[in-house]
Amino acid sequence: MATIRRAGASRPGTPAPENPATSSDLVARARSGDKRSIARLLTIVENDEPEAADAMRALYPDTGRAQIVGITGPPGGGKSTLVNRLAAAFRERASHVAIVAVDPSSPFSGGAILGDRIRMRERFLDEGIFIRSMASRGHTGGLARATVRVVNVLDALGTDVVLVETVGVGQEEVDVIRVADTVCLVTVPGLGDDIQAIKAGILEIADVLVVNKADRPGADETARDLAQMLSLAKDRPWKTPIIRTSAQTGEGLPQLLDAIAKHRSWSLSSGEHEDRRRAAARAEVEALLREALLRELEGRVGAARLNAAVARVAERSIDPYAAVEELLRR
Amino acid sequence: MKRPIRVVVAKAGLDGHDRGAKVVARALRDAGMEVIYTGVHQTPEQVVETALQEDADAIGVSLLSGAHNYIFPRINELMKEKGLDDVLLFGGGIIPEADWPGLRKVGVERVFPPGASLEEITTYVRAAVPKKRGVEV
Q1: Which of these CATH numbers, 3.30.2000.10, 3.20.20.120, 3.40.50.280, 3.30.70.100, describes B6-128?
Q2: CA-CA-CA-CA torsion for A215, A220, A222, A223, nearest 10 degrees?
Q3: CB contact under 8 A, A111 and B49
């Protein structure tokens, strides 16, 4: 059994305690490397259960130590396969690696198929790798709302490297920048011309550009388009490298690891790392604040008043702006 | 507490026919559950480790190879070892009815034979998980 924590916590056959009494017990057991407790803790923060705030209070001081690498890009680009390779490579020098993989929730049923593990099967029984799948649960930025919290917990429990895989993204899902120290954008040949490459959004957040499936036709053109796009961006202190990989065969992986390491050391020495973490902290506090204010406001307005206002807007006897003004007046 | 039920759907053993497992996974998704799908050729160790890390509420194993009398007892043993006592284990596929009582003894709470309706499966999981977990979901 065990462990995402430091080695030595191996206790085969020890039954995990049922229904942990308090979150502090749970945190203690998670710290000792009990995987069941770690998994439970992740569930608690994912669902924002009542114990989540206490658990986070206990763990937060220990966050900020892990290296967090984000992997984003369009669906089917090979993100999971690449993450599988990266996890194995990081494990060669780190004792604890975690993967947090996000897949979309159905907008209709709220259910989800979380299938990233299919590509990570060789890693399932590596005691030093912990994999957690998350559904986006209606959040649209490429991650789930709770992904930051899940990463924080894993970080606090002593994980050395956390790989965060986003849902398959389009052009605008850039939340991963709020979680990761280094963002790898995985694209593939044949997705579009050079105009796609100069559009705003996702390409701007890439610290490392990966052209995966580089053995396919069109890889040269894709790499060239990306290089041209990058040459238009003047005065960027970090020169975003373009790495060609084949996640399937592992080709280009050493170069990718090298690029990630270079970005990390640049980021640490240039102050970028600090800036980014500060921006992430702001984003998280603001998001929590918004949620809290919204809950409070909902309580104050009340469902009955809200429904009445909505009904009047629907029958056009009042406009939406006026409805909001009225609801905010007490 | 209101949250999606999390189910691991796995194909254990050597047969590679995962159409049924995929159809069930899809049905559970459409019933609002989060399905962790791991693909074919899973060992009992991989299945249980996945359920452990994912904090799954239930494990559904599809078997068409006839290895159920080996695979399920092993999964049950590992679940006990890892403390997954409140996780629901159910199965489906080609499993003769004569073997059901024996499987029940090793923790397989329900077996769905060919022809079982998707509605039956999703209704069952939704009702059985809260009982097993001892919480409302």
Answers
A1: 3.40.50.280
A2: 100
A3: no
Cα-Cα-Cα-Cα dihedral sign, residues A92, A94, A96, A100: negative
Whether residue A196 has pLDDT greater than 70 = no
Could you tell me whether strands B110-112 and B88-93 are parallel, antiparallel, or unpaired per DSSP bridges?
A: parallel
For residue A18, the model assigns a pLDDT of 43
**How does the average pLDDT of chain A come out, rounded?**
88
Cβ(A89)–Cβ(A255) below 8 Å: no
Domain A63-270 has CATH 3.30.470.10: no
Are residues A150 and A118 in contact, defined by beta-carbon separation less than 8 angstroms? no
Q: In what order do the strands lie in the sheet with A97-103?
A: A129-135, A97-103, A161-165, A67-72, A182-187, A208-211, A242-244
Is A137–B4 a contact, with Cβ atoms under 8 angstroms apart? yes
Q: What's the rounded Cα separation, in Å, for the pair A126 and A72?
A: 24
Contact criterion met (CB < 8 Å) for B53 and A132: yes
pLDDT tens-digit profile of A153-183? Answer: 999 999 999 999 999 888 778 899 889 999 9
Cβ–Cβ below 8 Å for B54 and A39: yes
Interface of B with A in 12-41 (CB under 8 A): 25-26, 28-39
- Examine the pLDDT at A303 and tell me if it is beyond 50: yes
Q: Which of residues 66-105 of B touch A (CB under 8 A)?
A: 80-86
B3, closest residue in chain A (CA to CA)? A47
**Inter-chain residue contact B25 with A118, CB threshold 8 Å:** no
pTM: 0.89
Those residues with Cβ within 8 angstroms of residue A310's Cβ, 6 or more apart along the chain or in another chain = A323
Residue A135 with chain B: CB contacts under 8 Å:
4, 34
Within an 8 Å CB–CB cutoff, is residue A118 touching chain B? yes
Q: Per-residue pLDDT averaged across A253-270, rounded?
A: 97
**pLDDT computed for residue B34 by the predictor:** 97
Radius of gyration of chain A from Cα atoms?
A: 22
